[in-house]
Amino acid sequence: MSPVTTSLAAIFNLNHSAHVVEWHFIQLSVANLVVIALMFVVFFAALLLPFPGAQNRRKGRS
Amino acid sequence: MSATETPPQSSWTVKLRERAVEALPPEKLLPDGQPTYVASWIYIFGVASIAALVCLIASGSILALKGPAWWHYTSVGHFFNSIHLWSVEIFFFVMVVHLWGKYWMAAWRGGRTRVWITGAVTFLVAVPCALTGYVSQQNFDAQWISTQAKDGLNSVGVGAFFNVTNFGQMYSYHVLLLPLAVVALVASHVLLVRRHGVVPPIDLKSRITPAPAAAAAGAAGRQGAPADTQPASGARS
Predict the structure, then answer these.
(1) SS3 A20
(2) Across the interface, which of B39, B89, B101 has its CB nearest the CB of A57?
């Protein structure tokens, strides 16, 4: 496999079975946990980050 | 009938049109502005879900036209297969964040119960829509997922009706029945949002320290619903 093909294939080596996290009856793949963590990050970022032009819109209203 | 004649009121088309215009006048259906509180990142996830759905349907239509051999064995097929996969990943990602945002906003306030219900049902219908896609891939991944799902569906007693190892049945569900349901639900959800307005944030200040006028009104007995239980007034920026 050429280096270009290898670099385009995937950032991480995916040629193995999934890593899983087990806690009692709960079994989650690490990939799914990463996605859930990202959803939390995006959710809180959406709440905290200022929206472009929001201040001007509120000032314009008052 | 001339153009100046009044149409007969018994006509079902006239009644339907009048009801539709009454429920959703053009300025509500296609507004030219939104309330100032909509200028927040938390309000973008609904339209982001719709954008992902458009990409899903467009890429899925191309996959349906070309067929499994094309999406498995050609570079362009791989590309559109990936577009379809990542569209569904983003669709669920932003839809979950949208759901969280609306849940903590109590988005069913102000007569928006049907808006909330159509959104929640869309999520529930989208799950089997995605599952039928995973089992329709025509590869080992599809075989693995379908045999796992078979056990799950059999355990709840519906395996005789939904045979996840039957490619034809699952493909029909995936490309026609379930997408049709999702699109119809999303359309009704958006029309209901247009009708009732985007839900405003919860006014915590007035809830924690009620204004003197509100306190007086409360002492005299509640005369009306709090502001955040009313549909959006449509204050424009």
Answers:
(1) strand
(2) B39
**Is the pLDDT assigned to residue B235 strictly greater than 80?**
no
**ipTM, two decimals:** 0.80
**Structural domains counted in chain B:** 1
Q: Is residue B213 part of a domain?
A: no
Give the structural domain span for A36. 18-48
The alpha-carbon radius of gyration of chain B (Å, integer) is 23
Tokens of A41: 């990050």
Residue-range definition of the domain harbouring residue B145: 38-200
Write down the mean pLDDT value for chain B. 87
DSSP B107: T
Do B41 and A51 count as a contact with CB atoms less than 8 A apart? yes
pLDDT given for residue B224 in this prediction: 39
B82 in contact with A at a CB cutoff of 8 Å? no
For B43, the closest chain A residue by CA position comes to: A46
* Within a domain: B208: no
Amino acid identity for residue A8 in this structure:
L
Asked whether residue B229 is assigned to any structural domain, the reply reads no
Of A35, A47, A57, the CB nearest to B36: A57
pTM: 0.82
